Amino acid sequence: MIPVLDPNPENIRAAAMALRAGRLVAMPTETVYGLAGNALDPAPLARIFEVKRRPFFDPLIVHVADAAAVQPLVRDLPEGAQRLMDRFWPGPLTLVLPKSHLVPDLATSGLPEVAVRVPSHPVARALLRETGLPLAAPSANPFGALSPTTAEHVANAFEDGIECVLDGGPSSVGVESSVLAWRNGKPALLRPGGIPVEALEEALGVAVLVVGGDGLGAQPSPGMLPWHYAPSVPLTLSEAKAIAATTTAENEGLLWFGDAEAPAGYARVENLSPSGDLREAAANLFAALHRLDASGAARISRIRAARVPDEGLGRAINERLEKASKKT
Ligand code: TXA
Ligand code: MG
Questions:
Q1: Measured from the CB, is residue 32 less than 6 Å from ligand 1?
Q2: Whose CA is nearest to atom 3 of ligand 1?
Q3: For residue 226, pLDDT beyond 80
């Protein structure tokens, strides 16, 4: 059992000591829980891949305490990067920047760029300050599985290999950070996430190329596999109208959204936001999927998920559901 600890100053000091000694700690962030290790030391980086059973071609995000701590890790900043840092950090935005020699190749899967972000969760920030290190932290779930938004999700997903989970409560944003890179000098969104693309475009004053998609064909980013974030049972994604018109088979679970009444006959229904609020829906997404997936008594055999409006955080939600639906 991995110990779940209250994030009091004493436990944060102990966790920081473990991180400095090369061990791994699961930490809360505002997006999802992260599995953290010293980003400057190849040994804990290798452990992160091993514990998550993550392929080495999928690079890690490096977390730092503030924008100043990014300087030693990067060579230079593309046009607009500073503005985005000022505007959205701390917060759910990851920037992919040319890396300095300090960043081990293992963190970037051998790529010349490193992904960095400053998380806003007070426990993550306290831990970063206390360790004085940049922390590489992918989402704290086994590779390909649902992302964790509570300490319990993390503790249930791993047997060992992690020093402790600091319990910072449910993640408030609920979907991973938006990942932005520059391609031929132009901003390109590699993963939709906690900062809507509309907000990025507004801050930059230029259009952002959306290269996310389903990762088939030209992979925009090495981690962009066609499937991901998957529950253990099959998930089918459709328009709400199509779901309402389908008769449900036995033991199906329904992921619903908005104030329209959910169709009858489902063994379990989760409404991401009865009032139709996409922020609330994002915050509830992974916990709702975990509950449907784990609804033991109801023995859910399939999850039917209704697409949410494709705007704001809705894009990040639909992208996660699309990837969950592609696991065969
Ligand atoms: O919100 C988040 O970003 C969470 C929390 C823990 O901070 N972390 C997270 O990490 O989602 P992870 O490992 O699940 O996703 C990292 C993704 C990679 O799969 C890849 O798509 C992109 O970020 N990425 C990382 N480094 C990159 C690089 N050098 N070039 C291009 N894409 C990169
Ligand atoms: Mg992940």
A1: yes
A2: 177
A3: no
Q: Where is 93: in which H helix or E strand?
A: strand 93-98
H-helix or E-strand containing 154? Answer: helix 151-157
pLDDT tens by residue, 96-121: 999 999 999 999 999 999 999 999 99
Give the model confidence (pLDDT) of 148-164 as tens digits. Answer: 999 999 999 999 999 99
As a three-state string, the secondary structure of 245-307 is CCCCCCCEEEEECCCCCCCCCCCEEEECCCCCCHHHHHHHHHHHHHHHHHCCCCCCCEEEEEC
| Bond from prior residue into 263 cis (ω within 30 degrees of 0) | no
d(CA 16, CA 36): 10
pTM over 0.70: yes
Q: How confident is the model at residue 249 (pLDDT cuts 50, 70, 90)?
A: confident
Residue 7 near residue 167, CB atoms below 8 Å: yes
Is the shortest distance between the CB of 316 and ligand 1 below 6 Å?
A: no
Quote the ligand 2 centre to 228 CA distance (angstroms): 8
pLDDT at 179: 97
- Residue % of the chain over a pLDDT of 90: 87
What radius of gyration do the chain's Cα atoms show? 19
The residue whose CA has the least distance to atom 17 of ligand 1 is 223
Answer yes or no: are the C-beta atoms of 130 and 13 closer than 8 Å. yes
